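User: Fold this; tokens only.

Assistant: Input:
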Amino acid sequence: MHELDDLDRRLIAALREDARMPITRLAAILKVSRTTAQARLDRLLESGAVLGFTVRARQANDQVRAVMMIEIEGRSTTAIIKRLRGFPELAALHTTNGGWDLVAEITAASLADFDRILREVRQIEGVLNSETSLLLSSL
């Protein structure tokens, strides 16, 4: 991957705001020619600095979202990760450093479902401890 310069970082920031932005609008925002903007975008895609484009959908207001930090006993990480991947409510699972071994992003349809997921995760053999924080609003 090539080293990102200021123009590359500004281009990526603009695309984070609106990944569907036409290249002419992107060029105007960056104050460069359309050709320069297109060449930079092509280079970012080819180098792997930009992996693709996505849609950010508005979450339903009634969904419960949270992050759960999980502490794992001994060498059971691989088995626990396999179990956790079976939960459709776990939107993402991350390894981390520090006091926690894993961080799970949870999306549940209701508080009752949220409560059930917490219980089921905590009952997995090898899960020593967990701490969960509800996500109240996205900024």
